[in-house]
Design a protein that fits this description.
Elements: H1 3-23, E1 31-34, E2 37-38, H2 62-69, H3 75-102, H4 106-117, H5 120-128, H6 131-165, H7 200-204, H8 209-236, H9 240-253, H10 259-269, H11 271-280, H12 290-294, H13 304-310, H14 329-350, H15 355-378, H16 381-393, H17 411-430, H18 446-461, H19 468-473, E3 477-478, H20 483-490, E4 496-500, E5 505-506, E6 516-517, H21 520-523, E7 534-536, E8 539-541, H22 547-556, H23 561-566, E9 569-575, H24 585-589, E10 593-597, E11 601-605, H25 617-653
Parallel strand pairs: 4-9
Antiparallel strand pairs: 1-2, 1-3, 5-6, 7-8, 9-11, 10-11
Helix pairs in contact: 1-3, 1-4, 3-4, 3-6, 3-17, 4-17, 4-18, 6-8, 6-9, 6-15, 8-9, 8-10, 8-25, 9-10, 9-15, 11-25, 13-15, 14-17, 14-18, 15-17, 17-18
Length: 654
Amino acid sequence: MSGSGRDRAVAAGYSAVGSLVVTAPLLAPGYLLLRDAVSTPRSYPTDSALGLGDAAPRAVPQDALLAVLSAFIDGGLLVKAILVVALWAAAYGAAALARELLRASLGPQLVAATVALWNPYVAERLLQGHWSLLAGYAALPWTALAGYHLRSASTAKRRNRILSNAPAQPGSIAPQSTPGSAGHPGEAASAEYSGSPASADTVGSGWWLPVVTAARHASVGTISAWAALAGSLAAAGLTPTGALLAGATAFALVHRRQLPAALVLWLAASAPWLVATALSGAGAEPSDPAGIAAFAARGEPGLGTLGSSAGLGGIWNAEAVPDSRTTPLAAIGTLVLLVIVALGLRAVATGGADPDNRHVRRALLLLAAVAVLFPALGATAWGMSALEWLVAHVPGAGLLRDTQKYVALAMPAYALCAAAGCAVAARCLSNAPRRESADRPAGALPAVTSTVAVVFVALLALPLYDLAWGAGGAVRPVRYPAGWQQVADRIDGPGDVAVLPGGMFRKFRYSGTAPVLDPAPRMLPNDVLQTGELPVRGRTVSGEGTRAREVETLLLRGGSAAELARLGVGWVLVERTTPGPHGESAVTLARVEQVYEDADLALYRVPGVVERGRSTTAHRCVAAAAHVLWGAMLVAGPLAALGARARFRSRTRN
């Protein structure tokens, strides 16, 4: 194995070990059930799973993906596998980005991987249960790589086209492709074509062959880069916020003339939630302005909101943070991270003789600046006022209410700067002469670089020591009582399911102390009505739907079974072991048939249900087609990119 191949293998292995250290408790049997994360043994392709329910399609297409695949593979295993792979992909993607854009050696690559994996953003979103958002986060360095390769391939094709149209002159030199023009991850500068002054015979016969060969390789590189971008956007599109993050990265990096094609790819990758929003009409309703203050970024000890955002932390939920972030270690860890990033900032901003490389570096730095400032400004009084107006008047603007999510956009630039900072520190410590090219600084001794990398990794990881082992054991699998499967098996008729007690969050004896989303919507084969109301920071943020709220109100005031049936409710599930309001629902339940009961759950059938609220067959077909398109991109994108890369290597060898 070549030195470059060994470096890739070590970086991939390091990333895998780091991912497993973070998620180790999830390797045990059971299901992830923590705050917003709900995995179940089996879920179903209901209207809600397709995004066609009353609520806004925030869990699309992840719910549909699990509904389809859990018919063959345990749903809990699927969620855990996606999370582990996502964390690995984030770390290894950052290492690959440093290798491609900075020509970084192994030590700086591992520093970049550590920045991407071991940071407060990952810890806080893991504790909040945002496993699908972390998949979008993991796609960002790969999206940046695809954008860089697209720019490079486009530049190479344009140069080759100009050279192929130019008349051959005696003494001409065959063209050279630029680094990265092949457009393949890890194939930097592998397609160079150079020649000596052409002879008379060459001018008359084969002077143009290097041009044709370079053009063919550039075409293969373009195909590979577009396929890689399609796969990255689809992976990020597991959740709408992830799609926005990857889309912003792609649009900032590709050439202007590539923007229309990139937009088409983004729309295709986002088709499940865009189509669901259009068909259900839920997205046309404005969001509750109270959500802006409730979900505003939060300042951590000794940092303030801006310092927390700059340190990749500051989630709105003060309970979804590791213990270390509630102590002075938060300020120490943030200071260490920012110092390491600052060491490499100048090298990232000014380095790179290749214009495409330089553009990508600077665009990522600009995205990072916006990502840090946006949550901080959104937490100010005037910032919250502006966002409140936006969500109240612009449909779909509710996606912006959790502003701290967008700190993820800073990760690729932070990883690059940390890798460059490692190289800069090593060069200074080795006290070597500054013999450096525009793309690859030289002079640091390998042993010094390795030592600095080890120190940097330790400094980055130790202040956040409790990210290990599932954020200190908080992220662990749970076991559902057998009654859930019994309830699912007995729902064999029409009608939606109403759930008691009221509200969307539960505290079960088997789920720990943190509140969790009700697993019923993903556990049962019929649609479960939920109000979408979120209790946050002592206030309630309203959801978009109205029928679920009407049904809940009816149950809590002891309304008749006939009224429930008229509202399309065919079943009532009572979750007995979780606190919450029951009101006068006992009056209603006394008038309906009980079909199952145990210590945890009770299921009732409502007679004479009038089916309503279900989407039409046409709507379901359109939504399903959008999901199939997304799934095809998710699978075919990486396969096409790998196939094009293999063809490129074969042609290069031949």
